[in-house]
Amino acid sequence: MSRSAQLTGGLLAAVGGVAIAVQGRVNGTLAQSLQNGFLAALISFGGGWLVLVVVVLSRQSGRDGLARLRESLVSRRIRWWECVGGLSGAFLVASQGIAIATIGVAVFTVAVVVGQVVSSLVVDRSGMGPGEPKPFTVTRGLGAAVGVVAVVVAVSHRFTSPGSLWLAVLPLVAGLLMGWQQAVNGLVREAAGHSVTTILVNFTTGTAALLLVNLVAARGVAEFPAQWWLYLGGLLGIVGVGGAIVSVRFIGVLMVGLCAVCGQLVGAVLLDAFSGHLALPTVIGVVLTLVSVGVAALPSGKMRP
What domain of life does the native source organism fall in (predicted)? Predict the structure, then answer.
């Protein structure tokens, strides 16, 4: 893989990360206004799904991508469970609506990192995603360890408030699922031969899951807010998922996760700084996470054959 292709993949993943950070703030604010995190998540995912349906069905390349994916499913070149990565995205978006208003975008984002880094290491080693398996190396393992330390530091100021600290478990679990999501989305991209079709599949499964949750746990909501920007979460999610799908072929699941985290953290720190949620331990955690990306990107010998 050429150096320029790797740099392009890293940049795309980072831009997607910034979009996810902004999406977190948008969805968190919408959930506060509606007093219903699950409904806010459905609005976000459903809005993105509607846009993708129009885009994919209006283009021949999109329709061809759906046909190729169907053929791959029928011939079992790809398995059905590899097409449900959107469930992970749905859990992440729902967690944004539930937790961000309390713990802030930066703590939420850093908490995602530890799960994302650990799961990405496992997924890369197993070869679950597209491309060859990527072995554990000293630098990859060290980068993951620094990422774990970053999470502990970032949430340390919450240790005296366990009532809010437990909310960090939600993004932690979401991060654990994201490594798998990025891998299977990469497989769907190879089967469909079309990135936007892949994103549509992702949003379809996520929207269906959130619709079911809202039907089961239906409850009244406050008045829908008038601010138009609160309904942009779906479009931001498209950018975030799309960046990961395209870049995973170039740099692997772990580096996609770490580069995306860089983008997420930069965006999250700026958002929290403007809203007054930013604390010194969070800033230190962000810096440590950025260090973990640099360490993981360094060449190194294998830890295991």
Answer: Bacteria
